[in-house]
Design a protein that fits this description.
This protein has 749 residues and is mainly beta. It has 6 domains: 73 residues, Immunoglobulin-like (Sandwich); 83 residues, Sandwich (Immunoglobulin-like), CATH 2.60.40.10; 55 residues, Immunoglobulin-like; 82 residues, Sandwich (Immunoglobulin-like); 87 residues, Sandwich (Immunoglobulin-like); 275 residues, Protein tyrosine phosphatase superfamily (Protein-Tyrosine Phosphatase, Chain A, Alpha-Beta Complex). Helices cover 14% and strands 38% of the residues. The strands form 12 sheets. It has an 8-stranded mixed sheet with strand order 36-37-45-38-44-43-42-41, sandwiched between helices. Strands 10, 11, 13, 14 and 15 form a 5-stranded antiparallel sheet that branches. Strands 16, 17, 18, 19 and 20 form a 5-stranded antiparallel sheet that branches. Strand 36 and strand 37 form a beta hairpin. The radius of gyration is 52 Å and the shape is elongated. It starts with 22 loop residues before the first helix and ends in a 14-residue tail after the last helix.
């Protein structure tokens, strides 16, 4: 120390030494550098430059300190931060209030669900979801893309989707998307996608080019083409200006609708209609369809512009649909026409004297189908009967011992059925005159009742077996064991020899015919096995598949030229001829295992109602003549197979008619009752109803009438019809009835 004065006395000299440590000097030094070394989505690593000492690190968010820590290192990693969030970081030397600060952000999380949303041959549309992180999610997204040879482009957006354009077609690209917030980027999400091909389409017709275009879509619509016409389309793909080979497709445009569809003619079982071909350069095929019931639809194809639908129900409305169809089955919209069949004619079965000869009672069989009303005319008297159909009607005001003509019409949809005529003499007790021949309906009824139980009581074991019950259409029409037709059994199936079919006697032999039921869906193959086993060349069908809205027989032959297979048998329709009352079809049956064939002709009578009789015997006589001519010319093969629905009523009537007409021709006499008895011993219920029994007589009488010169009284035909008179007379005595004598005849042979 200096500047001190000596005191008056001698003082002890004292020396004070002041010293300090280096801490004070160091506290005055500042941290020279402070920076961010690394960042992740949940951490930030800080670094600074010495002096080396102890440090305090503090971090804050939105001005609020959220963490602090001490360290002696010159770096520190702050963990457990929120992604994509800005923070303020401060580092200071311990003991010093000042320090260095900086702002830094964690990285955002990666974008989510990066995917390709759409693409074309020159662009790819990307979409993604925002990263998990704090709200608001105000990110900027960076999209980069490139091929194997390097980066091709980069762009950014604030939306969560982007269309990357100006790409090469059919090329694979790598796409990467990062999220940016607070100036830092997330790690990237990447996908690999390819652009679409460019497709070049060209088309022409009959070798002449008609157009060309290109598209990146996988479908194309060529317009302004001609209807119902064939076009050849060629398509090739292009990638990097290199074309693939072309694929070719030949296809028709949809044809136009038919024009001027109209009804031409209506009968009681058919409707004919016509149309004009559609406008267009080609002539299509036509598809015609209609419903025979609520669930059964008929469909045929034709090349002509008119068509007749037959086998219809009398007095019934139908809707017909006609479409144009090209070779590759392209169809036009349908055109429809509604039309009804004509009503069925009334069949007058008898007219008996009434009111002491001053009137008659007309009795007739009600026609099939629908009727709105009935009109009659008799002896100047006219009247109308509303439906339902009456079974009999008295008409008075006539004179005894005179002949009258009765005319009855059935009316429906503005149409009248062909009139049914019957002659009547008004004298009391005089039989009803039908042409020039007579027969007593009452005696015929009695004789039919006498035959009712003929043949019953014979064993029917096979048909009643549990495994065969489902093969029978009706539970009361079952073949007898001794006369049933067995099938060749299928190996391993002992019940496969059963079919509801019976041998029926004829004029000379006990097995001249086979009577069977109309096939069921599950017995169609059995039916064709029957034809093959018996080598039958003739099938006679006396029902329609659907009658009165009910299925009577399964459609067992092909509808067109396309064959149908049933087990080892294949059936092909070769020819078809449709007439007013019947259709004739030629079929070829081929056994695929044996490699052998059989020609079969089907005679289909289409106008015989179930449980009823035809309106006139004349068409049936013509049909039988056609059938008999074929049978006489077709030598060899098995017996003809005859069926209706049950295989007894109409079937028995036709077989009886064929046999009895041949018997009449050969012996000049005929025994109706004895032959029916013989048939019923072979198969139950043959000639099933009284009406069919009477109609059989009427048809025989009509045949006789046609063979005569005409106009003769029925008494001139004595000896032609004979019956077992003893049986009829015994029955009459039993019920106490006496009728005028039947036609004279001879005894049963």
């Amino acid at each position: 120390m200096s500047g001190l004065s000596p005191g008056p006395w001698r003082l002890l000299s004292t020396v004070v030494l002041v010293c300090w440590t280096g801490y004070l000097a160091a506290a005055q030094e500042e941290i020279s550098a402070f920076y961010v070394d690394k960042q992740s989505n949940t951490s930030v690593t800080l670094k600074w430059e010495p002096p080396n000492n102890n440090y305090t690190v503090t971090w804050a968010k939105d001005g609020q300190v959220i963490g602090t820590n001490d360290t002696s290192d010159i770096q520190y990693t702050v963990n457990h931060l929120q992604p994509g969030t800005a923070y303020e970081f401060t580092v200071r030397v311990q003991g010093n209030s000042s320090g260095r600060s900086l702002n830094a952000s964690t990285l955002p999380n990666e974008v989510q669900d990066l995917r390709m949303d759409a693409r074309s041959n020159s662009s790819v549309t990307l979409k993604w979801l925002a990263p998990d992180g704090p709200q608001p999610a105000d990110y900027t997204y960076w999209i980069s893309w490139g091929r194997e040879d390097g980066l091709a482009g980069q762009n950014h957006t604030t939306e969560m989707g982007h269309i990357v354009g100006s790409l090469a077609p059919a090329t694979v690209y790598n796409f990467t998307v990062t999220a940016e917030k607070n100036g830092v980027h997330s790690s990237g999400q990447s996908i690999q996608e390819a652009t679409d091909y460019t497709y070049w389409i060209s088309w022409g017709r009959e070798g002449v080019p008609r157009g060309a275009d290109n598209t990146s879509a996988e479908q194309y619509t060529a317009e302004a083409l001609e209807p119902g016409s064939p076009y050849e389309f060629r398509i090739r793909s292009m990638s990097n200006e290199v074309n693939s080979s072309a694929q070719m497709l030949r296809v028709f445009t949809e044809p136009n609708e038919v024009r001027n569809l109209q009804v031409v003619r209506q009968t009681n079982n058919s409707i004919e209609f016509s149309w004009m071909a559609p406008e267009g350069p080609t002539e299509p095929t036509y598809q015609v369809s209609w419903f025979l019931s609520e669930i059964y639809q008929r469909q045929v194809f034709t090349n002509g512009t008119n068509f007749t639908a037959d086998g219809l129900t009398p007095g019934t409305w139908y809707q017909f649909l006609v479409r144009s169809v090209t070779e590759d089955e392209a169809q036009s919209p349908e055109r429809t026409v509604n039309a009804s069949t004509a009503p069925d004619p009334v069949t007058i079965t008898s007219c008996t004297s009434d009111a002491a000869g001053y009137g008659v009672i007309l009795t007739f069989a009600c026609p099939a189908g629908n009727q709105e009303s009935f009109e009659y005319e008799l002896g100047g008297h006219q009247g109308t009967w509303p439906r339902p159909c009456p079974s009999s009607m008295p008409v008075g005001g006539l004179q005894p011992d005179k002949s009258y003509t009765a005319i009855v019409w059935s009316l429906w949809a503005g149409m009248k059925a062909p009139q049914a005529l019957v002659g009547r003499a008004g004298g009391s007790g005089t039989p009803c005159r039908i042409g020039a021949l007579t027969v007593s309906s009452l005696v015929l009824s009695l004789s039919n009742q006498h035959l009712a139980l003929e043949g019953t009581g014979q064993p029917q074991t096979a048909s009643l077996a549990p495994e065969n019950r489902s093969k029978n259409r009706f539970s009361n029409v079952l073949p007898y064991d001794w006369s049933r037709v067995p099938l060749q059994p299928i190996p391993g199936d002992p019940s496969s020899d059963y079919i509801n079919a019976s041998f029926v006697p004829g004029l000379v032999g006990p097995q001249e015919y086979i009577a069977t039921q109309g096939p069921l869906p599950q017995t169609v193959s059995d039916f064709w096995r029957l034809v093959w086993d018996q080598q039958s060349r003739t099938v006679v069908m006396l029902t329609n598949c659907v009658e009165g809205g009910r299925v009577k027989c399964e459609h067992y032959w092909p509808l067109d030229a396309k064959p149908c297979s049933h087990g080892h048998l294949r059936v092909t329709l070769k020819w078809e001829n449709v007439a007013e009352h019947w259709t004739v079809r030629d079929l070829h049956l081929f056994h695929m295992e044996l490699n052998e064939g059989l020609f079969v002709r089907q005679f289909h009578y289409t106008v015989w109602p179930d449980h009823g009789v035809p309106g006139s015997p004349d068409p049936l006589l013509a049909f039988r003549a056609l059938l008999r001519n074929w049978l006489d010319q077709s030598l060899g093969g098995g017996p003809p197979i005859v069926h209706c629905s049950a295989g007894v009523g109409r079937t028995g009537t036709l077989i009886a008619l064929d046999v009895l007409l041949r018997q009449l021709q050969k012996y000049q006499q005929v025994g109706v009752q004895s032959f029916i008895r013989k048939m019923r011993r072979s198969r139950p219920l043959m000639v099933q109803t009284e009406g069919q029994y009477i109609f059989l007589y009427q048809t025989l009488l009509r045949s006789l009438q046609l063979s005569q010169d005409g106009g003769e009284d029925c008494r001139d035909q004595e000896g032609v019809l004979y019956e077992n008179m003893e049986a009829i007379q015994a029955y009459e005595q039993e019920i106490g009835f006496r009728e005028e004598p039947m036609l004279p005849g001879v005894q049963d042979p």
